[in-house]
Design brief:
Blueprint: H1 2-27, H2 36-55, H3 61-86
Helix pairs in contact: 1-2, 2-3
Length: 93
């Protein structure tokens, strides 16, 4: 189930990031790299990549992938909370 979620979620997140970038470039005529939403999206994408890479290899790949997913989720939540504290008044929801 975890593998299937990664294999479906990664392309979906990649597509969402590309569409969000295209929408922002088209209608706002800029994509500020230091925007917290952009940074959080790229961090989430990088954690997806790390979780997918943890599945590769031999041996205890299931255990390693589960650990990578749990740690990645904790890192995403922590970064989200940190960004919320650093940018008061920003609409993230």
């Amino acid at each position: 189930m975890g593998r299937r979620a990664l294999l479906v979620g990664f392309p979906a997140l990649t597509l969402a990031l590309v569409l969000g970038w295209a929408w922002t470039a088209r209608f706002q005529h800029s994509l500020e790299v230091r925007n917290p939403k952009v940074l959080w999206g790229v961090l989430s994408w990088a954690i997806f990549v790390a979780a997918l890479l943890a599945r590769r290899g031999s041996g205890r790949q299931g255990r390693r992938a589960a650990l990578a997913s749990v740690l990645g989720f904790a890192l995403i939540v922590a970064s989200y909370l940190w960004i919320r504290v650093q940018t008061p008044g920003a609409a993230f929801l």
